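JOB MANIFEST
job_type = single_chain_structure
chain_count = 1
residues = 680
[input]
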Amino acid sequence: MHTRSLAHLVPRIAAAGALALALAWTPAAVPPAQAIDAVTAAATEVTPKGPTINETARSIYIPSDQGVRYYIDVAGTNITKEGLPYAKPGTYTEADGLKAGVPITVTAKSAGGSTVLVGTTRWETTFRQRPSYDLATGDDFNDPSELPSDQWNVYTTRAANLGENGNTVYTPDNLSVKDGNLEIRTERHCLTGSQEPTSATVSPGGAVCPSGTRTAYTSGRMNTGFIYNTPFRMDVRARMSDEVVDGLHFAAWIRNDQPYCTQAGVEESSLAELDTMEVFSQHSYTTNTSHITCTKQPDGGSGTKRDAHRLDTQIAGAWHEFSMTWDGYAIRYYLDGQLVPSSWGQTPETTAATLGLSDEQFRSALNDHPYQAIIDTLAFPKNTSWINPPRADQPFPARVDKVDYIHMTPLEDVHPGGAIEGKWKQSSWLGAPTAPETDAAVPGSRMQTFEHGAVYWSPSTGAHAVKGAIQGAYDSRGGAEGALGLPTSDENSLKGGASQSFQGGQIHWSPATGAHVDGGAIQGYWAQRGWETGWLGYPTGDEITGLAGGGASQTFQGGTLFWDARTGAVHEVHGGVLGTYGSYGWESGKLGYPTTDEIRLRGGVSQVFDSGQIHWSSGTGAHATFGAIQDYWKRNGWQDGWLGYPTGEETPTADGGVRQRFQHGEVTWHRDRPITVVRR
């Protein structure tokens, strides 16, 4: 609060009185009254610059002001430095004796008799208490206080330091907390001479400033300390004020503690700046830029390695959530949950490759230094060439930008390491890591997932990648936790497909059959018949276990293999024989398990099962024979005898018997009668 008083008259009176006393002791030819008038006429009138009072930071800045001395009084105590009777120019804080909740007075006095102060010479304020809460996870701005947490550093700048083209003066008065939002107020001021912006210099309604004044803007900026470590996620929900005007920049961003290389003496640095929210009042899109490392250019400018992203949307007057993630591998930006694409046609992710940096340079710049978060609104300087600054010849009503929250969330580092990193770098098709490296199910093993696959490692198996349909089949069988265990090879290309070996078996895949697991005795039989290039072809299903007697089966393009747990034998069944076998209930039906492979015969084939046989010919199809009828047929030369091949299955007769037809006859059996045969 600024208070104007009559105190500026005191120095004049004091100076005149001192001069009168001096003249009273000094012989002079000139009358004392005339001498006083001459000295008064020679004195210089000075308007004090005045202190800068930062309510939010609870600080007072005393300017270097020729001919002026400043005195700070806090509840009757004179606050100074280095034993001086007055306040030395510089910034005073609570560490120097300032206190919240008590009146503080700053008084300007003449430094000598040749200076007469005019204008305001006394300023009073009482600092309000700022809320104190930790910013480790960000800020929801829900404290009932109108001031942000005292963990935020609030900027105070001066118009005197703007230079010829500067536009924005940051003041604590332009930052406030209201209704659960941080509000940043930006308004126009009309300044004359060395004026600093105050409530008295605000342009009414943002009108164009009159001739003879300088147009400037006040706004707000604040930052945390360097308290955040990577990897992390940053989320900001914010709303830029309604009107579409030129020249305003509203941002919430994060940077590490490394210097910009535009600073004197800094030729290069490991700077990292990540612009989570960066919007412009005249643009209908969000922009996100990563600046990683900094090298000074010949013209003194900053040469940062950078990657830009853009997504069209309504900016002015709209709430949005802006997000950034750095997971140890890539930087990604999101608008309302949607990944923001590259402005330059690159991948949406910013990586070492997109910036042209080595992996080590990239990760070092991003990971080796702490970060601070910054929120600000800026009116661009008049000489900005790449975007229109605010127009001084157009009205500029006060604007309020709002931030609902800024959230900081730690993330785990997903960048691969060790043997898994080596396999990843050899296999560019894997893409970006999607999760950190973790323990696999097998003791002592590790695994990590990527966009297009996963890598598993153990000391005994090495590092191997799993992908595509084979990965799907592997995962469906429990992955490393399942019977297959860890991969022992990479995927192998085969004629028409692929395969991969695991501790507990293999997976074979083809476009026509999909991916299926094979192993054990069935796999051994298949291997003896030429794997996928043999007549069985690729498996069309996984091995089915838990069949009758503990057996198993698996289907292939050319037939089905059955494993009998009682004997350990594997036999294939295919074609017409397979169909008839199925009609009898497979291995759990009347026939039981096959005990031979298919046997070639003259004009057909046969196959023996636990409790019968199946014979097939092209003219008769496949039919099973059992018991007494089969014995009779056998005694009469099987299919080569006069009966020929069976043409149907055994069928019951009306009198309790069983009848079966053959190519050249019909055989009937009854339990208590001899077999009867009818030729035809």
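[summary]
The two ends are 125 Å apart (CA to CA).
Confidence is low (pLDDT under 50) at residues 1-40.
exit_status = 0
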